[in-house]
């Protein structure tokens, strides 16, 4: 008979416990048994404490065994490489970056002695210029108002740093509860992910951005198509502040998905509006629209059904002519999103094909620049806010992204780390040791909501506070004042350039009168179509030539 996984996780603790009891009982016959009982008793006491405490989820899930990991983590860098993974491409995020998040989440002083450990003469090194006239910022609760359309009756003040899209189903119930409770306390938003609004999103009462994916979860008919009545019911909840249509996701753009029947529990079915125990399909493309013009009409429909809340979309940039077609549709119809969230190709996911993760989708820096430049060139930038996501975990990450043209940032990794994620890369097999990315109640149930929600709150608060300190040192009073001239990059060992010279920025309106000089606009803007996502004729002819 196969033992359940939870029994195997507790086996070392139980062996120590029973061994200690047996050794103590036999110690009256021999001193050797007493000597054996002492270490076993110590381990049993340690394991009992692990099970009862609530601050460390890994210790609760792996009593006694977890301490071996902590020991290996504590070994100096000269030996650590022989025992645990090193900070190389094997892991998508470095241990140093995780430590910054952990310190801020635990509200630990993150000051370091002996200066920078980063090689400042290395190519690609970036920094922010300071001012000889620093300022003091009184209000560090930085926000941007979203709601630039005339029919947006309920604009929303977005924090400069928020929780990116992660669905219930991908994350455990307790992880969702902790994230939303932290967002409630810190007054920032929590993106639901395409898995819709679950009871765990609702319970703490934190602000929600409801993401609508191609599966229309939470607003779908039995055949999987969009249901306006179900949408209106959820969208008009006071807790829902904005609606986000997911066109594509940075980590796996153009890729649908399937939630196997075995994973469709009653709670997941309730949130998504699907049938318990049946496969759930997320198509690669939407069925509610198929052209840029139809998307603009869909945005207008959602805004009306929601009672006038801000409606936008999230996308990873792929073919530039498709993005240009969206902007041309905005110009032709005078209908437009209130916001656009740019998801970089380096974005994370629970599971995706390796080629999608590494080789599909434009990186965040290039994507934000293209979106910002296009809106500026079309005289739409002041009407549409831009959010950005893609490995944003620090104040400097936020500052450089805003300098490129974004208004705010979203993060997923950092908030997962604040929940206790150790990047075990087991999100896809339901064996997450920290109880974050699992639907196994014996694992996820060990994540203490009260403790971890405080860490979520601390991480966001301390990161925004660090951003405020950077701005003060630069002589700026608000993130909106950040420009490309404030961020520097070492492009070679002996050459440094500010973003304002490293990247090209369009002047307002140049796309409307044909004056844009950037190659991508000269090549694709005039040929992009508002009535189709199809490639321009010259691209199709080029393909035909290659096929001959």
From TrEMBL:
Keyword Cell wall biogenesis/degradation applies: no
Stored CDD domains: GltS_FMN
Gene Ontology MF terms in the entry: glutamate synthase activity
SUPFAM superfamilies, sorted: FMN-linked oxidoreductases (SSF51395)
Domain Glutamate synthase: start-end pairs: 159-475
Pfam family, any one: Glu_synthase
Family affiliation: Belongs to the glutamate synthase family.
Official protein name in the record: Glutamate synthase domain-containing protein
Lineage, top ranks: unclassified sequences, metagenomes, ecological metagenomes
